## 1
Amino acid sequence: MQTIRYGGDYNPEQWPEETWREDVRLMREAGVNLVSLGVFNWGIIEPAPGEYDWSGLDEVIGLLHEGGIGVDLGTPTSSPPAWLRKAHPEIRLVDREGRTLAGGSRHGVCPSAPAYRDACASIVEQLAARYGGHPAVELWHVHNEYGWANVECYCEASTAAFQAWLAAKYGDVDRLNAAWGTAFWGLVYRSFDQIEAPAVAPPGVNPALQLDWKRFSNDEHIANYRLQREIIARRSKAPATTNFMIPNCEGMDYWRWAGEVDVVANNHYLIAEREDHQIELSMSADLTRAVAGGPWMIMEHSTSAVNWQPRNIAKTPGEMRRNSLAHVARGADGLMFFQWRASRAGAEKFHSAMVPHGGTDTQVWRDVAALGRDLERLSGVVGTDVAADVAMLWDWESWWALELEWRPSVDLKYRERVEAYYAALWRQHVTVDFAHPEADLSGYRLVVAPSSYVLTDAASKNLRGYVENGGHLVVSYFSGIVDEHDTVHPGAHPGALRETLGLWIEEFHPLREGEELGLDSASGAGIGGGAAGRIWSEHVRLDGARAVAHFAAGPDRGRPALTRHDLGRGTAWYAATALDGPTGLNDLLATAMEAAGVERPQGIPANVEVVRRGGHRFLINHTAQDVQVPGGGVDALDGTAYDGPVPVPAGGVVILADA
Ligand code: GLA
């Protein structure tokens, strides 16, 4: 990719042919250079089994090609045609309650069903044969949002596939019994075919069974992707991808997906009602960059409101531009929208688009066209990476395991802590990378582990080695408790981090709903005083670490609440409660960053995002006031040179190129 790819989902089958030429003309006007085509058209291109109608697709691809617009060609397998469901009722999705899902929508199929798999292979074979060599096809958009509504299927075929998956993983059922701890309640299996999918059951279903089920379900979708990708690769040299939903799809483990795609593509929609939704967007972008290991693309975001949230708040003036450029700042080399032209019919007609129902005499259209012109001037960032000194651990397996039933508190939520720590760093203008707990962390000055409930032995060694070799680590409560089978590490909690943190926990003391405990700063340490903890307290026993703050109240009054352990050449910090806000979390992170030598941009106004990427500095003003940002540079979009502070208008974005 030499220029930033710009465009959106294009669904010409919803429009009469007269619109197609006009679409191409408008796309050119807006600087669109790539569109996703055919993502949901299976029922149109294959009206009956083995009968194909390529007329519309041939023509549209030809028109786009003539217009110099590339095609990201969809495989339509997320919306199987009605005839397939009718001919093969066994492909219908069965949910956890055992209900068979009806048709009339997309996605409602079982990824493990042989008839569905065969039909996918057949339509993809046809598409690849017909368009694999077409010069307009620059990218393959396999399926759409794997796991959107069918992460798990509980039909008989799925159960059989799960049993086969387990047999391949463990070889011998006794190995599975040992890994799953089935001696508990005598839930022992004597053969793989005795194992049931974890559908609705009495409470207390074996957590290890549930974790393997989630891994299996993820793998079934990967298998479908691979099937399609391999067929395409035989016929086409164009790269292939599928659109992820980071971080809003809990069921897909995108660390496992990362190696399967040629370019990581993500869909991100603002959680519109949240006041600070720009922070969640940044987090999504940073996590997507981590999964990609470099540049990536936004396959879908919205020009304004979506249609599927409880209240679909429209974007405020300038917000779409801020959102789009924040993705670019954080590593996106492509910016695509759902969708090109707002639909008149169907379930998504109230979703914003690049061409709204009101046409081109609208602010949305003017903003879309202006953004296209801006992107043409930002080719210099394409292919470049984002620099970060701080990493945050992220693991879908911890998310899954932490939120299974019967934890010490229902308030233990994976994203609650990750987002709290991420937001505290964001508000201090610190760019964060995400990392898997077993990844090489040596390039980071500081690593933050807010919700690392599951840590394998390898991750435990990794974190210890990181600290001993000079790294700085901040860990939040209820981390390092269990291994990948949800089995408690031997000895006192937190087994995987005891030595690294220099402490052990005698007993957990979760708090009541809404309860807050004050903290006292230990003399001279300067953090924690005046802060309050929520959700959690525990009886921390020091074994090498020292307390920097104590609980001032509650069951652990007078006992350590925040600790510091100098180990080897590094330091490990621990928070035994949920900190928030300026006196708690910000202080802890500021102190840890100071000790770790993390450079923080100074003098940046609150709620202004500053990100460095490829010789550019992105200044994104999320406030309603004009601000000045220290430092100078040359405006990459209009060439203005600044010697001193750079003015960034209210709600605006300035991108400075290094001289
Ligand atoms: C998802 C889908 C799109 C569309 C949008 C609407 O991202 O991939 O097809 O439904 O949501 O926001």
## 2
Amino acid sequence: MPPTNPDPMQLFLDTANLSDIKKYAALGIVDGITTNPTLIAKEGASLEKRIKEIAEVVDGPISAEVTATNLKEMINEGRKIAKWHPNVYVKVPSTSEGLQAVKIFKSENIRTNTTLVFSASQALLAAKVGADFVSPFIGRLDDISEPGMDLIADIVKIFKNYNFATKVLVASIRHPRHIVEAALIGADIATMPAEVMEKLIHHPLTDLGLEKFLKDWRAQAKKLRA
Ligand code: G3P
């Protein structure tokens, strides 16, 4: 059966921590970065400085979020952010002002990521106004006992039905199973904290198996030397 999504799934880090970004980028598994005002505040960094620092490490989409809530200020802020680096995507909240902003940014060739998406209707509207990415927050839905992954399945189906170019960026990921399920559905991108990326790599049976292989190998080498 041919894959339903022709492009390989992309993995982003959801952090503004430079040492984590450098660590995982060095493994060759980081396709992009998402940040939000909380993550930037946690680092105590200036948004502009940190986004530029990240762009030196990762050659892929980097989301930087506007903090203005009214349209005029959102547009001014987004235009400034977009000038920082060609890989920057302006992250805009899923509000009426945000939708208008995305449409204006689209007409100016500024790429956008519509964030804080919690329903398929919000994702549909973001796609209609030309968002490049939509970010449904699945962990926060799970937190209130609503199945976040069902939302991903709905959005992927809707975008496929109408051939929307908007990519589904699964956000608010809590554990590796979220990524596997998103991949099974065919979501374009998953963004995750560093701890989850670390967990993606490991399996206890890999560690145990390697330990046994090496133990057997060393025992055999010892015999040969004797
Ligand atoms: O950056 C957006 C999103 O991934 C935040 O996740 O863990 O704060 O719900 P979280």
## 3
Amino acid sequence: MELRPTLTIDRLISELNALAQISEAEPPVVTRVVLSDADLRARVYVKGLCREAGLEVHEDAIGNTFARWQGTEPDLAPIATGSHIDAIPNAGLYDGCVGVLGGLDAIRVLQQLGFKPRRSIELVVFTAEEPTRFGIGCLGSRMMAGVLSPEQAIALRDKEGRGLEELRSQAGFTGSLEAVALSCGRFHQFVELHIEQGPLLEQESIDVGLVTHIAAPASMRILIEGEGGHAGGKLMPGRKDALAAAAVLVLALEGAAKSTGAIDTVGTVGVCEVFPGAVNSIPSRVRLETDIRDIDVARRDAVIEKLKTACEEVAERRGVSIKTEMVNADPPATCNPAILDAMEQAAKAAGKSYKRMVSRAYHDSLFMARIAPVAMLFIPCRGGVSHRPDEYASPEWIGSGVHVLSRTLATLSS
Ligand code: GLV
Ligand code: MN
Ligand code: MN
């Protein structure tokens, strides 16, 4: 089949730019926390594009969105593609959105060519891939895979103490949370297009990455309780400064992650909340949120154990109380060989260079892998930069990704 994805690349780029304008922050900064006003407006925009393309749109009880292009055998389980449109604070415009709008564009390319899929093709827009609001990543796909139960989801709270029930009903998502979980077999196969969020494809001038494994992410919350007081009046001996204790733990995690000697082990403290947060007050309480990942789950867990041991030592030495709480510790996912082969054939047919690689970032595919065969298709991003406003993928890179994705969808749906 002759595919000409450049036919629509200008439209796709202008849609990506239009979506980026829907932000809680001043563009070009993209901040779109799930179920915020910006997130809801962005959903309206994307659903509108899907309907314009003739797709049937429906949403589940937490706003996971399914836009279906009916196949000639509609009773067969569909092929799915998609990603997320929520964005962490101070993000760019490609993370997730390339997989959603690029997935839609791949469908439109096939429509324009007069292709008739045998299996339906469904574009999925997952709710809350980012952990910003509820502290846990991939909320939508996690619930879809039945990994997070409705009870666990209801117990989640954001910083203002607002829960999923309140926020989803305010957004107009009703219905039973029980129905969010989907059975194995609901989707025949799932493919996610995404920017690499690392530097390799650009450095090696490779058009697309065929993702074979997705690293295992974990997150641990650390609550430190010390003793507050007057920053001038209280003398240094005998202080129980919660932030000073936290500082030791930040470095302990960095040390533990580096000590494995493996390039695939990473550890980050991305949140440090200090109470009361006044310049002349000794911090009495600190909450740290840590993110620890590896493609080797045992090696990741060994880092977590080292961090827990550091917590015990620091608590003892500094006379503070430290509690740890695992937010999540997910296993890695392995991508499906048949989809990888289909992507490889698609890349060859499209004349695009490719390599097999692992994903160090997590994605909704990590959870979709529990209920369907999955694979991911990466495109380069400049300097490997992501989760920053200067994140960038060129129209050529995006065009190559959409081209390979459309060919892959054509093969899988035939
Ligand atoms: C996803 O955004 C991740 O943090 O890997
Ligand atoms: Mn992200
Ligand atoms: Mn993403």
## 4
Amino acid sequence: MLTQAPKGTKDILPSEVYKWQYIEKIIAELCRNYGYKEIRLPVFEHTELFQRGVGDTTDIVQKEMYTFTDKGGRSITLRPEGTAGVVRSYIEHGMASLPQPIKLYYNITAYRYEKMQKGRYREFHQFGVEAFGSEGPGIDIEIISMLIMLFDRLGVKDIALNINSIGCPECRSKYNEALKEYLKDRLENLCETCKTRFERNPLRIIDCKEEKCKTHTVSAPALIEHLCEGCEQHFEGMKAGLDNLGIAYNVDKNIVRGLDYYTKTVFEFVSKNIGSQGTVCGGGRYDGLIEACGGKATSGIGFAIGIERLLLVMEAQGISIPETQGIDIFVATIGDKAEKYAEKLVYQLRGNGINAEKDLMKRSLKAQMKYADKLGAVYSVVLGDDEVDNNKAVLKNMTNREQREVSLDSIIEELKK
Ligand code: HAM
């Protein structure tokens, strides 16, 4: 126990962190290009926010949240996703009074007590965006195009965009009647959780992960066939906008998404490369969420992409990620005098923005040079008493093995070149 990370969590070791840093850099550039500003939020929130936001008939709230009572007696939950927290922050900080739309992005860890499998963890990472205040389909098109561009910049191919509309509360109430009519004779065959969903939120039954519920809902009526005129127009407008940008999509009437806040547009990006957990990204519109959380009625839309799943797709497609460079120079030493000199030299080199290392393990010269190679040093220099006394040393290029004499005073300038 003591020496094993909890089930469903993973360490990101120094040997692989460069992949994460690479993706985060591309995300930051993309968000700058699209005018989305970063927001950083607490890892935990009041439990009620997720009950109200994500929805208390969802799998996430009913089965998967890490909830505890803190020492002050408050019910606290580790965020299972990012949207609810961003909405809370939008309301708390009065962002509605700023010029709209408000466009935000985040890179977060999220927590869900789920059955572990490839691509499904209990702590995972999401890059997400949320945009508030714009009602028309233009913003739907913008955020979907952002994902297309992200995949393009990362070199990810063959990732299908599936879209659907699940309408507004008006379409939903009419649809619920049709769905309940269909489900009522099948109710006995559904799981216990779905039986309780029948009256409160029958749409959730369509999204249940239990096999027996899945089989009994395959031919259930689809929400997209019950859209009101406004929702229909919104959906048509979005499809026309995607066509205009040359973005290919499939309309998948089975997408309902696992969170309650969605209205109108919902979408997912799915890869066939990574097994059953192929949904790399999910998102959609949530025009009623801000009001439900205590703000004034404002529309919203966003998505979140799972970084672990994105990395699995990149790996499956053989996409190589450039590794962070090794160090610029290794300063090897022989003897105490050179050691003292090297301590100061390395300090000065680092102060000048040069990535410098020296031995800290009392290695022999041969072992120091081997270590320099392992660190991927571009240059090395060997200092002994003579070098320090004469203020001269041999600078060696570790890749092409070229050597030249340099004065120790000018080594910083030489390396900066
Ligand atoms: P979600 O579909 O629950 O949506 O999650 C989005 C993505 O997070 C998934 O497509 C998947 O890549 C990743 N993900 C979810 N659960 C896990 C898990 N247990 N292990 C690994 N990866 C996982 C949301 O979270 C919404 N907040 C998205 C959104 C933002 N909608 C509007 N704005």
